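Hi R.,

Here's the input for the pyridoxal-5'-phosphate complex you asked about:
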Amino acid sequence: MKIIDLRSDTVTRPTPGMQAAMASAPLGDDVFGDDPTVNLLQASLAERLGFEAGLFCPTGTQSNLLALMAHCQRGDEYIVGQEAHCYKWEAGGAAVLGSVQPQPLDHASDGSLPLERIAAAIKPDDFHHARTRLLALENTLGGKVLPQDYVDSAVALAHSRGLQCHLDGARFFNAVVASQHAGEGLAQTAHRLVAGFDSVSICLSKGLGAPVGSVLLGGKDFIHQARRWRKMLGGGMRQAGVLAAAGLYALEHHVARLADDHANARLLAALLADVPGLQVDAGPTNMVFLQIAAERAEALVAHLRAHQVLATGLYKLRLVTHLDVSEADVRRVAEVIRAF
Ligand SMILES: *Cc1c(COP(=O)(O)O)cnc(C)c1O
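And here is the predicted structure with pyridoxal-5'-phosphate in place:
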């Protein structure tokens, strides 16, 4: 029986079409700036989202770290959510490697950082304090899309106080696809969601289905600085076009289809909505969270595993739909959970 792996959308394997694109990509040494496929990926994604330049990175963790280090100097700080990846899930890299202090804030229930909390966290220019330099937001966050009027207000507030704004858009295109207005093209929606940010980091290796890679976008000088940090951190890759080709393929073929993953997540949530003892929480994208009594959680994970379904998390189980999960798979998962 096929294993249905819902642990993350990072588990996707390159499709035959993607492998063909990787195999035929023109290559060069990217540390010399010579890889035409990397250059095309960087330039085309930058153009698509309205930035001056892009930088291909091995991971989203490195891409976020480069952004924090390029925006902030030693002794600066960034305002960030308690649950944000670039605060909680990146091993403290900004502090350890950047000497940049995080100022984490509690999220509201919709994932936003309330404007009054942001405003109150910005330190006055006084030598007792770290210099507040940056606001870092994340979209999507836990599968939820931040309200766009909130994002616009937060960016405006940050800029009015002299801060830069970084968007951790690891799943940016999930947010885009879920935010598309009727009659609006995906390109327009993407522009709307990224408007005002000074930088954005986008993962190619999540729902987009590439095996490796993230792209950091920003202004020319910012990317120039980030490239220096990338080299220092060991992220200067050589014939990286073989990987960038997968990213280009994903951007061409796997963006609009994210709607299928979102529909599958909604279907899964609907099929589980009436299960007693199970609290189902699903945003508009590709994640479903299940909450179950703590003493039953481990048994549920084991039950799923015994039925060839993989999921992570105790207390709150996370099920993520992606390219390698079909509607039939989702129906099977719902049956397995209902049987439990
Ligand atoms: C996965 C993820 C990252 C980092 O990606 P890696 O490539 O795994 O380092 C950053 N931010 C968010 C929100 C993510 O989900």
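One thing worth noting: The first helix runs from residue 16 to 23.

Cheers,
M.
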